[in-house]
Structures are given as C-alpha cells and as structure tokens.
# Entry
Amino acid sequence: MAHSKERYLFRKKLKELSGMKGQGTELITIYIPPNYQVSEITNKLREEAGQAMNIKSKQTRKSVTSAIERLIHALKNMKKPPANGLVLFSGNLNDKVVLFSIEPPEPVPIQTYRCDSSFFLDPLWDMLKTDEVYGLLIVDRREATLAMLRGKKVDIIKSMGSQVPGKHRAGGQSSVRFERLIEIAAHEWFKKVGELANKSFEPEEVKGVILGGPGPTKHEFLNGDFLSNIVKGKIVGIIDTSYTDEFGIRELVQKSGSIMEGLEIVQEKKLLDKFFMEAATGGLATYGEKEVRDALVMGKVDTLLLSEDLSWKRVKFVCPQCGAEKEMTVKGNIPIVRCDKENSEMQVSVEKDFVEELAEIAEQMGSKIEIISTDTPEGEQFLKGFGGIGALLRFK
Ligand SMILES: [Zn+2]
# Structure
C-alpha cells in the first residue's frame, strides 16, 4: 500500500463531503473526465442555469443559480482538465455558497451533472475500493483472455484464440490418433497462454492472480507445467465464468470483489498480529504519540501504523507580540493558548491533520506508512488499546 497517505487524504475528503447536506435539492456535483472540453461543461452549466429558473422554491432557485455561477466562474480560466480529470462541488451550506474540487487518484470515468440534497460521490468511493494490481486470466481450450485490474480499471492485455481442434473428428481418422493430436495441440496452446501469463503477472506490482473459465479446463491448466511457480504462488482465487472473452473478464471482476477485499483485510491483520506480538514481548515495536514521534525522528521506524479513525489535528501557534512559537496535538476544539512571556493570546499559524503530519515525517525518514482501518476486531483493538498510533521498529 505505497499510496497509503494519499488514500487516507482522499478518503478523508470524501468523508467530509458526504457529511454535507443541503436544505433542499441544491448541492451540485460535476464530473469532468480527462481530455474533456471545458467549454462544453460551461455550456451545459449555462443550460442548467436556464432550467433552474423553473424551480418553484425561491430559496432553492437562488441557491442553485448561485452555485452554477460559482462553477462557471471556477472553470473560466481553465484551458483543459487536469490529467485525471476533475470533480467540482458547489452549493449553499449554512447560507454560504461553497466550492470544493477534487483531482482524483484515478481518471474520472463519467461526465455527469447532479443536483441533489447531497454531493454525488459514488464513482469516487469506488476508486477507494482497492488500489492494488491483480492479474486476471481466463482460459479454456478455445480461447484465453488476460487482463490487469488496477483499482477499478480493467486493462485487457490480450485475447487469443487456439488452434485446438474440436471434439468431433473428421471421418477416417483413427480415434486414438485424433485424441493424441488434440492433446498435443492443447499442450502447445496452454504453453503459449502460460508464457504470456508469466511475463505479465510475474512483476512485483501484481499482488495476486485470479484464474477463471468455464468447466474444468482451468484446473487442468493450473495443475500442468505452464505457469511459473511465482505466478502459481500468486493465485488467490479460481472462479467459474460463462465466457472466455472480455465479458468473461467482467464476470471475473464482479465475482472476485470479496476475494480482494478479504486479501486486504488479511494483510492488515498479519501486520497487526506482528505488532501486537512485538509490543507484548517488549520487542521491536512502540506505541503512543510521544514514543512513536521520537522513534520516527530518530529513524528507528520501519513501519508507521496509524488508525484511520484518529481525527486529531497538529496545530502551530505563534505569539503576535514576541513571535514565540508552540506546537501541539489537539484532540477536539482548538484551545486558547497563551504566550509564556507576556501571557498574550497566541494565534494559530498552521493547522494540519494529525495523521497527515506524522505520515509526512515518516516519508522524510523513509519509513513505510500503513493506515489501519477499524473494520476488523484487530483494527478496533489497535485504536482502543494502543491509541491508534504504533510503529514497528528497525532497531531499539
Ligand atoms: Zn509572546
């Protein structure tokens, strides 16, 4: 999970946006895919502004119109969308027209305009489901399709047809000889599929391989000598599919969601079990904010573990009179902090998300970062028993 911090920040933003509710149907979301004409979006917004004139409630009409104006304004100086496209949010929240934008970690898949009582976030949540890479392989005796699943995106590597003859032999051929020809052709076919699978799925970025196909052929293929041990070791699921082409790949993706979710949970559980064991035996682990922070800056941390449910802030204060600075972790509302010299009220100079701040130090020190969910009993225990802050150490 190399992009753990980015995922965390993206997820946090989505959580914030999903908590925002409009008074009526007045929160607008627009999805702009990469390479989309910005002028087309602006034209669409103008059309929507025209239609908004028909809204009966005066308050809603006013809110929608101002939100659309705000969006048009935001797009005014944009020549083209960012590399992955753009999602914009606007609407009236507590009598203020707000504007938010997200450049998602994966390409925006659709162009859409939504006006609702909450922001439309489903395609963005989908991007969070997994950011890992899986190899997909469907094989039978007639056809094989290989693909790569990156997050939610499927890239077909190749679809191949075989030369293996069907079961019906031509008249005059001896059945034994014919069977033998079939087996030779099938062997060659499997070899060809195996070679491409090895080349595609051996690289380290591929976390797992899911094998599919109709009937027993996939098992025959797997048990044969066609896949390398590296690829065989990566097989995390075998699934029956009705098709062997691109439709089959879609089928495979639909049916393998729980396998991949399960894998992420298993990885997290393994990591936490190791942490619990080390912590309990006084081994290479530490926890608690001060201990972990000290270990981090001393370069002792191999893997930093942070619960995603930590909603703290790291705040810097500065004294307006003498310029003295103070820094502290804040777990609720920001308190009033006074300068030690003149007792004057200090001002907030920097306010940062706590997890983000620690993750930045970890990045500088070359420590790995794992954001721990609270979806499992182990994740809960990590938050409640260890304060949600821990580290596996390189040395003590
Ligand atoms: Zn001062």
Remarks:
- Residues 4-127 form a domain with the Translation, Eukaryotic Peptide Chain Release Factor Subunit 1; Chain A fold (CATH 3.30.960.10).
- The pocket of zinc ion is lined by residues 319, 321-322, 324, 339, 341-342, 344 (CB under 6 Å).
- The CA atoms of residues 208 and 233 lie 8 Å apart.
- The chain has eleven helices and 16 strands.
